[in-house]
UniProtKB/TrEMBL annotation:
This is Flavin-containing monooxygenase. Pathway: Plant hormone metabolism; auxin biosynthesis. One of its GO terms (molecular function) is indole-3-pyruvate monooxygenase activity. It comes from Capsicum annuum (Capsicum pepper). One of its GO terms (biological process) is auxin biosynthetic process.
Length: 418
């Protein structure tokens, strides 16, 4: 039973959920919802934005495409349309997700920002408190909690000396849409991951002059080898070869195709690309044209930043560059520590402490989806596991209730006869 002596319980409208509460209506949350629908289990999805997949709809640039072939990015029980290209565009992927939600009749509770979620041991239930855009507070009470806010819920903005005094426009990559308004300007792109590379390429295509800050080492791989996705090739080799050997083969093939990229200021890590992804979560850059612009010096690769001043950036080498704008392609992080009051399953960085493949289930009905560092394929496999696991307990509860009801009915019948 709920502990009614807790005054905080009465501080907001309470809703009992006869199934799990899923926090986040991105691809991961939708995947769990679809799998639960297939099992006949009710659920509630809470989403702080006003749409599904808000990261894709509101915080991505226009030219974005899936980096991996569509067969590795589809959600459970619903493939991409056959007419879609191998690498769907941003709009096509959003259309796919909206079709997915319609197919499985998934209707998230939009504009519901989770303030906190905690497990109440006095009643063995999760309490999830939200506040709507209109200020209405609601507390959801449930047996299971699925964290589906993902790896990229919140932007990372580094604290760089002098950035506030720079004077020019400073935006994060999540607010960058197109290089059109930067035409003719000198733009410093901070961060050399996939976003930094693609933003720099897009700026080139709009006649801007980008300088790309490459502070640390980075793996740059061709998106395709011999007409096949490098990811698909890696997955095929992993069936037969150890990870370290697959990394060696990928780097040898990359060297033959891309050549020595270190002479352009792009240093390779000592750890192989797959091992680095698995151990540190650092995704290799899949080149779609930026490297050619770097070779032709249309994208200027520069080392780390020392500090900013008015209209100028000073690099660690002491060299100063005059720039008009700054795009911070400095990545994202999990927001779980800000709202989930739990420290046994999730670490301080907002990721499950247990390594893959054991990072999907915690104690007391707590689950995580989309934290495998293995993209949409990892989220899909987690979603299937979670729905199956919840289904076992849910169906056992139903059977127990039926048995209790049957026993109660027989007892009542006996009393009536007597």
């Amino acid at each position: 039973m709920v502990n009614f002596n807790d005054q905080d319980f009465f501080s907001s409208r309470c809703v009992w959920v006869n199934g799990p509460v899923i926090v986040g209506a991105g691809p991961s949350g939708l995947a769990v919802g679809a799998c639960l629908k297939e099992q006949g289990i009710p659920f509630v999805i809470l989403e702080k934005s006003d749409c599904i997949a808000s990261l894709w709809q509101k915080r991505t640039y226009d030219r974005l495409k899936l980096h991996l072939p569509k067969q590795f990015c589809q959600l459970p029980k619903f493939p991409f349309p056959q007419h879609y290209p191998e690498y769907p565009t941003k709009k096509q992927f959003i259309d796919y997700l909206e079709s997915y939600a319609r197919k499985f009749d998934i209707n998230p509770m939009f504009n519901e920002c989770v303030q906190f979620a905690k497990y109440d041991k006095s009643c063995n239930l999760w309490r999830v408190k939200t506040i709507s855009s209109s200020g209405l507070e609601v507390e959801y009470i449930c047996q299971w909690l699925v964290v589906a806010t993902g790896e990229n819920a919140q932007k990372v903005v580094p604290n760089i000396e002098g950035l506030k005094e720079f004077g020019g426009e400073v935006i994060h990559a999540c607010d960058y849409k197109s290089g059109e308004k930067f035409s003719g300007k000198k733009v410093l792109v901070v961060g050399c991951g996939n976003s930094g590379m693609e933003v720099s390429l897009d700026l080139c295509n709009h006649n801007a002059q980008p300088s790309l800050v490459c502070r640390s080492s980075v793996h740059v791989l061709p998106r395709e080898i011999f007409g096949k996705s490098i990811f698909e090739l890696a997955m095929f080799m992993m069936k037969w070869l150890p990870l370290w050997l697959v990394d060696k083969i990928l780097l040898i093939l990359t060297w033959f195709i891309l050549g020595n990229i270190e002479k352009y200021g792009l240093k390779r890590p000592k750890i192989g690309p797959l091992e680095l992804k698995n151990t540190q979560g650092k995704t290799p850059v899949l080149d779609i044209g930026a490297l050619e612009r770097i070779r032709s010096r249309k994208i200027n690769v520069v080392p780390g930043i020392n500090k900013f001043s008015c209209g100028t950036v000073e690099l660690v080498t002491g060299k100063k560059l005059k720039i008009d704008s700054v795009v911070l392609a400095t990545g994202y992080c999990s927001n779980v520590p800000f709202w989930l009051k739990e420290s046994e399953f999730f670490a301080k960085n907002g990721f499950p402490k247990a390594p893959f493949p054991n990072c999907w289930k915690g104690k007391y009905g707590l689950y995580a989806v989309g934290f495998t560092r293995r993209g949409l394929a990892g989220a899909s496999s987690d979603a299937i596991r979670i729905a199956q696991d919840i289904s076992k307990v849910y169906n056992e509860d139903i059977m127990q209730k039926k048995q209790n009801f049957s026993t109660h009915t027989r007892c009542m019948s006996t009393l009536c006869v007597n």
